[in-house]
Amino acid sequence: MFRSILFFSSFCLLFSCSNGNLSNVCDVNSNSYLEELLFRITTKDKSFHCGYQIQEPREPICSLSYEQAHLPENWDLVKKEVELQASLGVSGPEALVQYSLVSVQSAIGVAYPAFQSALSAPNGKLYLLPYNSPYIVSIDPNNRSFALSTSVAGVVDFMGGALGPNGTIYLAPHQNNDFFSFDTSKETMSTIGNITMGGAAYNGGVFAPNGKVYFTPGNESTIRYYDTKTKTFGSVATSLSGGIFSNGVLTPEGKIYYIPHDATNIYILDTNTDSVTMHSYSFGGSGNFFSGIYAPNGKIYIIPFNASNVFAVDTKNNDTVTNLGNLPSPVSGMFNGVVLSPNGKIYPIPYNYSNFISIDPRTDSYSVLMANPSTTSYRGGAIGLGGEIYLSPHNADRFDLLDTKANGSFCDSIRLSPYWNKF
After folding, report:
1. DSSP state of 59
2. Beta strands 378-383 and 346-350: pairing type?
């Protein structure tokens, strides 16, 4: 507002010595023009006036909160910052680092499978979300240490979640009827709702620009959401059909692309209208895919589970689908989760696949990296402060990170963004 007043004062000073047409509202020297301009500035009216539109000075993206960064009008700033960090390159080849010699089983006190997905939080920590673990575990990337954060009641009560406003993680109910929130500032759990549902109900969620967290349907066909503004639950009128969806990907247009697992088609939810459309391309079902991620080039990369190849959906070109080709030596259950690094590359998280790989969206090419140390090893990961990816151990009995050797890093506006900080 202060800058708006300065802007108006400069206008007044510029034209104070002129004798303009006082009755012409489009004469820049007239009192009517200046009065109209002041009214539009003070009311933040951005409609066109005499062929011009008021544009307030924009803050750098890293000075905005993550809640603001994913608003559609800020995407160009997000894209510019992500591409800037990628242009800084890397310091060397990627490395798999075991950052704690404590085994997962001894840390949580039960046998694995331990965790399913990980999320970053505004307090600088990352949180491993339980599968069989009786605890949410926090990771401090400053000293690469872990701590038992808070206990949870059941086994596979929830499957992933989404970071909403004010550092609250909204967990996706999987094997029960309760919806939980996790306050990362206090590290406390709360029950925010109860809805009767079938088993394996939802798989993760997406925090949309309208303030709603939309949960990704698993065995449920209804897209349910929690409105973080009104603290109420609701649902989208159109149900999804055809099977299980495993992941949701947010685009700058406020659309969520639901990645098919047992389903054969991508469904697209427009959160501006809560309307649903189906993409015509058939991805085959049969557990072919599990994850997806949006890249700054406007493409969504569909990461294989039982399929042998990666697909790209070009959201800037009528959702055109491109097959990027087969991965070497495909197996069943290949990847579970995917993370964007500040070096500009995409890293699918290996589950049964024998190696880590990277995908470069600038060339749509693969690179095979180091070996995966076990099978059914990881499910998801989250980006650390320096571009390292903290892996969520499932059956891997070790705490690992993938050092992407990025020279750049993501500020919190990007690191916590719902475009990428999700499962």
Report:
1. P
2. unpaired
pLDDT tens track for 351-377: 999 999 999 999 999 999 999 999 999
Please, are residues 208 and 418 in contact by the beta-carbon 8 Å criterion? yes
Residue 291: how many other CB atoms lie within 10 Å: 25
Q: Are 163 and 121 in contact (CB under 8 A)?
A: yes
Q: Given this model, what pLDDT does residue 155 score? A: 84
Check residue 386 and give its pLDDT. 87
CB 118 within 8 A of CB 390: yes
What are the backbone dihedrals phi and psi of residue 349, each rounded to the nearest 5 degrees, phi first?
Answer: -90, 115
- Residues 113 and 208 both lie in one domain: yes
Integer Cα distance of 423 and 245 in angstroms:
12
- Other beta carbons less than 10 A from residue 253's beta carbon: 14
Tokens 């575990």 belong to which residue? 137
Nearest partner of 204 among 277, 131, 267, 306, judged by Cα: 131
Measured CA distances, 274 to 191, 251, 270 (Å): 25, 15, 5
Report the predicted TM-score, pTM, of the whole model to 2 decimal places: 0.88
**Dihedral, CA of residue 109, residue 423, residue 206 and residue 184, to nearest 10:** 40
Amino acid at 289: F
Domain termination site, one of 15, 41, 57? 57
Q: Which residues contact 374 (CB under 8 A, 6 or more apart)?
A: 395, 396, 397
pLDDT at 329: 94
Enumerate the β-bridge partners of residue 149.
Answer: none
Q: Strands, DSSP E only, in 75-157? A: 95-100, 115-120, 126-130, 135-140, 145-151
pLDDT at 8: 43
Start-to-end CA distance of the chain, whole Å, equals 38
Per-residue pLDDT for 35 more than 50? Answer: yes
Q: Which residue has the tokens 């149900």?
A: 239
Could you tell me the residue range of the domain that residue 250 belongs to? 85-415
- Report the CATH number at residue 333: 2.120.10.30
Measuring CA to CA, which residue among 117, 4, 35, 62 is closest to residue 414?
A: 62
324 and 364 Cβ atoms separated by less than 8 Å: yes
